[in-house]
Amino acid sequence: MRLMARNTIGFVNRTYSNYYVEHRDFNLAIASMGDQINWETQNYSYRIVKPMNPVSNLQSELDLRFDMKIIIAQPKKSYLNRYLGIVYVRSIAWTSSSKDINPELLICESQKSLAQFQSYPKLAMPVITNDDIQCPPHYRRL
């Protein structure tokens, strides 16, 4: 069950990354997956979100900017862990002539099962620390 969730998250991460390399955009990557993903299984429900960066975090045009998609494997059974797949692009020097684009992938697993958290956040967001994206609190990187 957990292996299937990790494999699904990994597949979606790689699909988004490959799509971004080819098209420089995440928006239509989901269509390229077609019927290869079962978004609802007996044990997990999968969904994709796109977080927004607050404008106040942008200090200059040379600041790091993260464009990302987060794939969530939400467990349907209390003894299972939650998984997040994070695909992001770090773009530096936002000029029309220069763009350094490298899609990066991250898979995070909750450190405890859903039942072990009394007030488990509905959507745990990745954390930006020292200009790097890390797993949210209570998650570990796989």
Explain what the structure shows:
The longest helix has 22 residues, at 2-23. Helices cover 19% and strands 37% of the residues. Mean pLDDT is 77; it is low at 54-64 and 93-98. The chain contains two helices and seven strands. It has one domain. Strand 5 and strand 6 (132-134) form a beta hairpin. The chain has 142 residues and is of the alpha+beta class.
Q: How does the helix and strand content classify structurally? A: alpha+beta
Overall mean pLDDT = 77
Extended strand count: 7
Gap between N and C termini, in Å?
16 Å
Task: Count the domains.
Answer: 1
Low-confidence stretches: 54-64, 93-98
- The string of secondary-structure elements, in order, is HHEEEEEEE
Pfam families: Pilin_GH
InterPro entries: Pilin_GH
